[in-house]
Design a protein that fits this description.
Elements (H helix, E strand, L loop, with lengths): L1 H16 L4 H8 L14 H7 L14 H14 L8 E3 L9 E5 L8 E11 L4 E8 L2 E11 L1 E7 L5 E7 L1 H12 L13
The structure holds nickel (II) ion.
Length: 193
């Protein structure tokens, strides 16, 4: 009985804290080198994954080797000189979790930053047409109408919540990356190729 209670309380503790699943760990630590393989719409299994809704990140994932490795590898993947991007969402490396990396062109040094559970609270900016591409949609670009300003809520890598107003091209990247977390691609919204 005592043993059963210990097992039960461990299970409850695990489910409330969360953490990455073993399938997710396999992807995070799998393959060779830091650059991860990108999910693309040209592959059927990838395509289904890219069209799925991602699950929230949880507190149990914070300050883990899994998260540190995932961040390092997503960064290496989006900064791959052979196939560079300005943003990347976790589903693009096969992890259906609400996490994105965005290049902050609105900050000095234009660093990449990570955002957990990002949400757009408001889009007060005017809509403007702009060119977009996506690492998951090879060899294509399209024109998409996006808000030039967004109010964003997210958690940082320590799971601390923030609200921020972002403008210009960086706001467009956020809209594109957050769409990925709901299975939406820019090609769904583009006005012309
Ligand atoms: Ni994309």
């Amino acid at each position: 009985m005592k043993k059963f209670l210990v097992i039960l309380s461990c299970a409850l503790l695990l489910s409330s804290c969360g953490g990455f699943t073993s399938a997710e760990r396999e992807v995070i630590f799998g393959g060779e080198g830091d650059i991860m393989s990108l999910t693309t719409i040209s592959n059927r299994a990838d395509s289904l994954l890219l069209r799925s809704k991602s699950q929230p990140m949880n507190r149990g994932m914070v300050a883990t080797e899994e998260l540190a490795t995932l961040c390092r590898r997503m960064l290496a993947t989006v900064q791959n000189p052979e196939n560079e991007g300005v943003g990347i969402a976790a589903p693009q490396v096969g992890i259906l979790r609400r996490m994105v990396a965005v290049q902050r062109f609105d900050k000095e040094g234009e660093p990449f930053e990570f955002f957990l559970n990002p949400e757009i609270l408001a889009m007060p900016g005017e809509m403007k047409l702009g060119g977009e591409g996506c690492l998951s949609v090879p060899e294509m670009r399209g024109v998409v109408s996006r808000s030039q300003q967004i109010v964003l809520r997210y958690r940082d890598l320590d799971f601390v919540e923030h609200t921020d107003t972002v403008s210009g091209f960086t706001a467009v990247i956020f809209q594109h990356e957050i769409d990925h977390l709901d299975g939406v691609l820019y090609i769904d919204k583009m006005e012309k190729e």
